[in-house]
Amino acid sequence: MVMKLRVLAATALIGPLAFGMTAVGQTAEDDWEFAHDPEKKLSVAMVRYEEGTALMAQCQAGALRLALTGLPGTSDPSRTLTVARSDGAADVQTYDVVAQNLLSKTWARDARFLRTTGSVQVRTTSGASQPFSASFELPAQHRNLDQVLTACGYSLENDRDQLPRADEAMRLTPPPRKLTTGGRSGSSVEISCIVQSGRLEGCRSDHHPEDFQPRSAQREAATWNGRRVHRDDAAGNEGKVFYINSPLLTVVYTTEPLS
User: Which range marks the domain in which residue 144 is found?
Assistant: First the structure.
């Protein structure tokens, strides 16, 4: 099925599609719709289609989320999709199933993949329990999508976007967890590593919380260097990029007496 852009007025109301979003959108000429709520630290870019489907990128309080909605439903916990652009670029992306027909994920690579014009074709990988395919016509501009990425502190380009992606289910032994004096408890550093000779190498921080120092983020990334990949996964992922959300365990200081 081919998704055609929906005709919208210059100012439109973006309803609570997901994640409790309600804001007034400002639609630029042939661009993604855009909405911004400073009080909620919320920025949203969206493309809606006649069939009721939509693509959305959201930044809220530094957290990025990409969503596809209105696609055929599934009872599976996730969907792995092959996504291909009209310029020949292709990627394999795994989405969490938030609701039966709502797919969501948090990697900036997947949002950057939509910084293009023309069509994007989406299809389930072989063996899917409920297969489907769809084609989305994107706007001629993506400045409003860029605003969302920038609001969350992501770069608009990343050299590792050009590398094939390692299997998200690739097995390896993580480094021992440690306490840190920076960052909010429950936040994380986003790390990318290259699989080389059965180990993770070249690990670097691609994104970190605003209250976490870049040097500390790089030290966090370095702890993944040399981690061994399970031998059954190593050959098939050689030379590919593996993405990690490394959680921060924050030190909490107190002046209260010990009991």
Answer: 2-159
What are the backbone angles phi and psi of residue 109, rounded to the nearest 5°? -55, -40
Do residues 69 and 101 lie in contact, with contact meaning Cβ atoms separated by under 8 Å?
yes
Distance set, CA 11 to CA 3, 141, 146, 229, 249 (Å): 22, 17, 19, 50, 43
Parallel/antiparallel/unpaired status of strands 2-3 and 133-138: parallel
H or E element: which one contains 196? strand 188-196
- Relative to beta strand 133-138, strand 179-180 is unpaired
Residue 7 pLDDT > 50: no
Residue of 58, 180, 163, 39 lying closest to 111 (CA atoms): 58
Pairing of strands 102-105, 179-180: unpaired
Q: What is the Cα–Cα distance from 233 to 8, expressed in whole angstroms? A: 47
* CA–CA gap between residue 251 and residue 259 (Å, rounded): 19
For the chain, the domain total comes to: 2
Q: Is the pLDDT of residue 210 over 80?
A: yes
pTM of the complete model beyond 0.90: no
Which of 159, 174, 199 is the C-terminal boundary of a domain? 159
